[in-house]
Amino acid sequence: MDYLRAIGVDPAGVVVQQGQLNYAGPNCPGAEWNCTASNRVVQMAPAHLPAMNVFECLPALSVTLLGLDDCLIVQSSALDPLETASTLNSASCDVESSGNAKQRCKVKQSSKKGSNNARINQRTTQRGGSPQVATQDAEISQTSDTGNNTAKITQNIQQTLDDSQTAAVAQSQNARQYAKVDQTSTTGNNSSDVQQSQSQDENATSAAGITQEQNTDATLMRNSQAEVTQNSSTGNNTSNLRQAIDQDQNANSPSGPVSQTEGNVAGGLQGTVKPMTNAPGLNSSTATQDEPQTQHATTGGTLTQSKQGPEFCCAEEVGGTTANVNLVTQANTQTDDNAVGSSQHSEQSGQCSQTVVGATCTVDQTFTANGNTDHQTMTGMDVNSTRFCNGGIEGGCFGD
């Protein structure tokens, strides 16, 4: 119980399973398994073989904390003196919600010779009235001596608004995603795959004014944020990170005014990847950020269109060999009606580094404003490219 308190878990609020075969989830595999349907479970494999901890978390809407889908998974086979390479901690958390929702999954796994495998899948689909707000949090922490750690996090938010009326229309959509992977292994391999995506779509027709906003709440900070830390003495570290926000606004108001805003300077995308190993282990990191923003309006009145597309990424590799892979790709495409009241801004900050002489990394950045593209690629042992891009007649990208 002291271990649980040390990691911030109240022992009174969880189910503790101690058995040869532990299962938590909706479908008990059989009579030989120690089973529970609870969403907050601690599993500890005993000194018997075969030993396995399996958790399938499919949370229902919490009546205690309205709108929160919550899973807490703690698994350990590290105290088993008969643990072998075939011992497995396996956990999955699948959450799907509609309406304004908060989703949270947290997994902690530990082993020595055995392996850890965790998967979190979060999906929110929102339709109907404004405002729409969704948040997703996912955390995976894995430790092993000679075993392998494998983590996969998938987060997806889809928001859609459609309004047609004679009165004024106000539409608002905000989304926040946070993913964290922390992996440690002595001689085993660490593998992380994090996929974050947001799709925001606003459509409005009105005889009066129209206001459309997407991810304009600066208090949420970065709309998609991911942190990946991997440590191994001689094993391989592999990280794949993809972040995408796709925003689209359409308005039809004969008299206007029409105001459309996408993003804010404190929002956007942020990724951090920090792998560390020693030869013959390899570090391999691929990170991609994509942020298309589109605005279109038909009006005889005043039209204001504004877009902010911040992107920050990502990989600092320590150790490995000259065969390390480190690639950061950033893209922001902004499209509007090129009206007098339109503005397009993007900050792209790409950073990558290597400590092994002869190893290189690459930052590739693309900004497109109404079909005009500015592209640059930089390669070296330490690359830091921060640039500020603007659309319009005197547009372009300026910075390092």
- Figure out the total of helices: 1
The protein's oligomeric status is single chain
Order of the strands making up the biggest sheet: 3-2-5-7-9-11-13-16-19-23-25-26
Mean pLDDT: 89
Please give the radius of gyration in angstroms.
Answer: 24 Å
Poorly predicted residue ranges: 60-68
Largest sheet: 12 strands, mixed
The SS-based structural class is: mainly beta
Measured between the Cα atoms of the first and last residue, the distance is: 52 Å
Helix content: under 10%
Run of helices and strands: HEEEEEEEEEEEEEEEEEEEEEEEEEEEE
Shape label: flat
Question: How much strand?
Answer: over 45%
**SS elements, strand count:** 28
Supply the number of structural domains. 2
Structure report:
By secondary structure, the chain is mostly beta strands. It has 2 domains: 102 residues, no CATH class; 273 residues, no CATH class. It is built from 1 helix and 28 strands. The strands form 2 sheets. It has a 12-stranded mixed sheet with strand order 3-2-5-7-9-11-13-16-19-23-25-26, with no helix packed on it. It is flat and about 75 Å long.
Fold blueprint:
Elements: H1 2-6, E1 15-18, E2 21-24, E3 34-36, E4 40-44, E5 52-57, E6 68-76, E7 88-98, E8 101-110, E9 115-126, E10 132-144, E11 149-165, E12 169-185, E13 190-206, E14 210-214, E15 224-232, E16 237-253, E17 258-262, E18 269-278, E19 283-299, E20 303-308, E21 311-316, E22 318-320, E23 325-335, E24 342-353, E25 361-369, E26 372-380, E27 382-390, E28 396-399
Parallel strand pairs: 1-4, 2-3, 2-5, 4-6, 5-7, 6-8, 7-9, 8-10, 9-11, 10-12, 11-13, 12-14, 12-15, 13-16, 14-17, 15-18, 16-19, 17-20, 18-21, 18-22, 19-23, 20-24, 21-24, 23-25
Antiparallel strand pairs: 24-27, 25-26, 27-28
